[in-house]
Predict the structure.
Amino acid sequence: MRPFLFTVLNSLFIGIAFSPGIACALLNGGFESGDAAVPDSWQHGCSGGCEGTFVIDNEVKAEGTRSVRLSSASEFAPHVFCGLSQRLASLTPGQIYRLSFQAKGEDVGICWYGGGPDWALRKSLPSGTFAWREFILEWTCGDDTSFEFRINLDSPTQALWVDDVRLYAMTQDSPVVTGLLDGIAHLEEQVKVLRATLEHTALQGLATWYPRADVVLAERFCSYARDDVANGRFERAEEVVREVEELLARAEKEMTDNVDVPLVKKDAPIEIRDGSFWAECVTRNGEEMRPVFLTGYGHFAPVVDDLPFFPEIGINVIQIEIGPRSTVFEDGIRTDGVREGIIRALDRARENGVRVCVLISPHYFPQWALDKWPGVQLQTRGFLNVAPDAPEVRDIYRQHIQALVPLIKDHPALHSICLSNEPVSLAWQRDPYRLPLWQSWLERKYNTIAALNEVYRTEYTSFAEIPHPELSFNEKRAPLYDGVRFNQEAFAEFHAWMTGEIHTIAPNLPCHAKVMILPMDRSTLFWGTDPWDFAKLSQLNGNDCPNMRLAPGREWTNEWLGQNMYYDLQRSMKRVPIFNTENHIIRDREKNYIPPEHIYTAIWQGAIHGQGASTTWAWQRTYDAKSDFEGLILHRAASTAAMSRCALDLMRLSKEVAALQNLTPSIAILYSNAAQVADPRHVDARARVYETLNFCGVPVGFITDEQIEAGLLEQYKCLFVAGAKASTARAIEAMRQWAGSGGCIVAYDTDTLVEDEYGRPAAPPTFAASLPAGNVDDLPRMRDEILGLLNANNIGPDLILHTEEGVIPYGVEWRTATMDGKMIINIINYRPVPMKVQLPEGVWKNLMTNQPVEMTVMLEPEIPLLVSRE
């Protein structure tokens, strides 16, 4: 039995001990019986040649006389693991079970516990070294009356000790439940006291934004914890109680800190200046025009219901949607859905100082129209399952826009229009409306069929004979490249057409599309969402990008590489804010604990790399374990509070963040459709070069073939070409001329720019340097070599951070800017272990805490640091 600690009214702590429930048939949970090889009732085994060991340890134990110690020397690979298991029998269908155990780790890698059918229930163990602690697994027994419990080691682990495994059947009247409810009641009483303290503090003229957010979220999550208990989610309720206790303690500590946060003035227009959002803001010192950051949630009814709640927790934007099936009917246009849904939401948002992005959802196509024109329907994996070029389809969309936009275009709460949800064009070869467009596109491009035959090495007699190419890397190079570019241009034209229809009614209303992350996968080439094409049709950089927490034992704590690359790519296409309207920072159905630092870092670092607005997926709760909403942020008190704290910090420090996000890069990486078609190396090589540059202390840009053709290479001083056998002939010629005029081109890997987009030989430009391709372990060395190149060309960083040993840290990103004559630095450690760095000489202040900072700084994982030299 172990105590739960709850804060009571007088801020003392009491321990509530409980027995979790009725003990069940788990055998030999303390490993006390059995011979020296394997304890009774347990199994240990290795798969895929894993070099794993298992021993009974009589020296290290949590309870009793011994524990078991597991280890593995094998690298992470598919189906390579070792583990400890026991099949639990005679369970009762529908019964909630709780299994707990003690574990202690030394240099632990990727390890998990769980099991069940297909081992689908998995929870991660911490990586690194940790003392004895309890871990809990809860599940509801299905029809199968047995459950295989496992602890698996999937990567090198020095030692993992396990002891005191217990299994209980949970009931609503068991001590754990009554203990939980008592704890929630204590917290609810503390909330009442702190609510009164907040009002008293505000009457004294002190700003209370930060403690207020913590207290009101604590109040909300106390209610959620009661719901969790009532629905048998005991483990989740315990986590909420622990986190609410921490929020209330922090609120009490910060109650009189008097930290003011600017608010966007009610009805003030939000405009774009120098790549950031700006608006008239209200502070206690008066009104001020300044950069602003919009942070919030999507995407369904609960965000509208909670609009009065959001201002108290620092949230200032939501995203909602309405599609043509709600406006365009067979008997005519109806605007009831617009008035009762969208306008009601806009009115509530205006009352509460929240801005709204409206997604016009073309994927919600009316069923009556599909029945009437079945030929417009496409079978596709994307959301958009109709032929976007069909006249009937465009007429439906035009009517939808004409029904919606006039009613909302002048509403002060309306921020922007999102044109489409996760747009992809994957079925265009089966689209009968596209074939003549494809053939006309080819005729415009080649002019004569003889010219096309020369490139394609074919014998067509007319353009009307040419079929759609298959979107497959097995397709012949020339038609595949043309097919990719046609699909991209045609899909962009569809979105540009929607933008034009909207701007006919509301010329200044910003439009953007929810384009999913592009740089990390070669097959995204087939989506039709070229970043340069979409930048030209959009007024904001529309985005749907994830940054998930990675499992313990990985090289990085989160998916920073994809987020940073995509944001920097989009900002290189157009210097306007990014609006990530579906920010995925927690996986759907996530079962593992998510540290609040992950939430804060994902939003904060997104802003550093150009994000001006974000609506996180999704402000929803559920008790359906199969729902996409299971495990999302509204089940996690500390994560929700971290979102609010980051929202407040971004508004408070908006000038500094805007200065950092609008740094002008001198360095670009080639982002090439031609290379992606021709060369399977390009995506991975591009990511490796970006990773190394990101740890050089400089902003990084991208440039496409088409941008180079348009003369935009002149804005950079250095171009990195990574794993790119090909580019367009015109781009290669422009690169040759630029290099001849003193431009610095660095090649990564061999056979660089030796072919044009159709596979014809090309004369590459002169390279200032060539870097050999290496494996992941070579990247720190390559980073140091790149830093030397940058410094030699006078485009290196303003300063270089070092560890105490004088080494430039790999895995630490830093960016510097100057504001009001002072140097500011944003620093983040993406590694899962702390690192110490040395700041340059001077007196430094942590702008997040407003406290002095020593020159030697310990960088904890996923905790950004913003400092200024005073």
In short: The longest helix spans residues 175-203. The radius of gyration is 29 Å. The chain has five domains: 3-19+174-254, 22-170, 271-661, 667-792, 812-869. The chain has a mean pLDDT of 94.
